[in-house]
């Protein structure tokens, strides 16, 4: 199993002790040792082709070792850059991390499609990285942030070898999002509608096609859905719909509700701020092969260190090395017998 490394730094009081008459002067406290520098990782950027477009990708690796698990990380928004800090972060945990600057963003050609053919950008990079860096084909995961969660779920649902999927504050209903933005951000609404091809009332089929709900139902891998109770862009009910779709597909979904500081969160009185029939626990329990809906009730549309630690723990629980195949067990048996 991948080890989960959490490095903390403590404070040391460096004030001199008080001088007491007739007593020896207390020695000054030792200055705090400098915090250890994070381990270096290998970072490589390159271009690749999808649909005749030049797409930019980045890969972060802990080292050159083959057989590492592959984490496909998908950024959010229409202007968000590839998250190099978290790319390095997960590489230090032992993953080979593949991140695409999706079409029309971050120097890639084309234009954004709002959870459309960006899925092909992600899957093509996954195949390239798996072949180039000889990652473990049996240990593949996806992590998507905001809009990237929609893309991550769609990509993972196409594949049968994915071990875990994590979405952080991710939309499932773009028409609803634009209605929420319309009173205060007409400029943003106009941009999204231009990318989608028009308003929902004229091209509702396009909006429905962009939604990830069919992929949510088809996804074979366990899914961690992280939502925020005060998110002004993505209502909690969109994540509740993910829970309902997973249960309808036969998956058990554990509900956990916390405050943004990690303390147990109370179930709100207002029905739109909770899922129908929600009965949450206060702490994450067994995460292996388990769907989880984690709600931070007092959080807006922003990620937090605790949220990223929850993602780390979920991935680690589901990406541990698989049991050896019969062929591998027989091979090892004959090797030992020959010694």
TrEMBL record:
Top-level taxonomic group: Bacteria
Gene3D superfamilies: alpha/beta hydrolase (3.40.50.1820)
Any one Pfam family match given in the protein's UniProt record, by short name: Peptidase_S9
InterPro entries in UniProt: AB_hydrolase_fold, FrsA_esterase, Peptidase_S9_cat
Molecular function via GO: carboxylic ester hydrolase activity; serine-type peptidase activity
Keyword field: Hydrolase
GO biological process: proteolysis
Location of the Peptidase S9 prolyl oligopeptidase catalytic domain: 87-258
PANTHER family: DIENELACTONE HYDROLASE DOMAIN-CONTAINING PROTEIN-RELATED, POLYKETIDE TRANSFERASE AF380
Name assigned to this protein: X-Pro dipeptidyl-peptidase (S15 family)
Biological source species: Deinococcus peraridilitoris (strain DSM 19664 / LMG 22246 / CIP 109416 / KR-200)
């Amino acid at each position: 199993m991948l080890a989960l490394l959490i490095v903390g730094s403590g404070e040391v009081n460096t004030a001199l002790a008080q001088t007491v008459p007739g007593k020896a002067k207390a020695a000054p406290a030792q200055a705090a040792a400098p915090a250890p520098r994070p381990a270096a990782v290998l970072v490589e950027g390159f271009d690749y082709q999808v649909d005749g477009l030049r797409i930019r990708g980045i890969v972060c690796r802990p080292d050159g070792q083959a057989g590492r698990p592959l984490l496909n990380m998908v950024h959010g928004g229409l202007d968000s850059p590839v998250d190099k800090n978290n790319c390095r972060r997960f590489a230090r945990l032992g993953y080979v991390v593949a991140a695409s600057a999706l079409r029309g963003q971050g120097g890639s050609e084309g234009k954004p499609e709002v959870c459309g053919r960006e899925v092909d950008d992600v899957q093509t990079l996954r195949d390239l990285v798996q072949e180039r860096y000889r990652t473990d084909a049996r240990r593949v995961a996806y992590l998507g942030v905001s809009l990237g969660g929609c893309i991550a779920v769609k990509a993972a649902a196409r594949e049968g070898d994915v071990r875990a999927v994590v979405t952080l504050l991710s939309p499932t209903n773009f028409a609803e999002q634009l209605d929420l933005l319309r009173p205060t951000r007409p400029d943003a609404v106009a941009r999204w509608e231009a990318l989608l091809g028009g308003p929902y009332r004229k091209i509702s089929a396009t909006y429905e096609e962009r939604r990830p709900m069919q992929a949510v139902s088809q996804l074979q891998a366990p899914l961690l859905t992280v939502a925020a109770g005060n998110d002004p862009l993505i209502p909690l009910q969109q994540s509740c719909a993910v829970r309902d779709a997973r249960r309808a597909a036969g998956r058990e979904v554990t509900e956990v509700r916390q405050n943004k500081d990690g303390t147990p969160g109370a179930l709100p009185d207002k029905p739109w701020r909770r899922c129908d029939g929600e009965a949450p626990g206060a702490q994450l329990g067994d995460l292996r092969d388990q769907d989880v809906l984690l709600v931070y009730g007092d959080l807006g549309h922003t990620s937090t260190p605790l949220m990223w630690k929850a993602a780390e723990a979920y991935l680690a629980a589901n990406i541990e090395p698989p049991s050896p195949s019969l062929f591998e067990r027989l091979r090892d048996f004959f090797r030992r017998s020959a010694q």
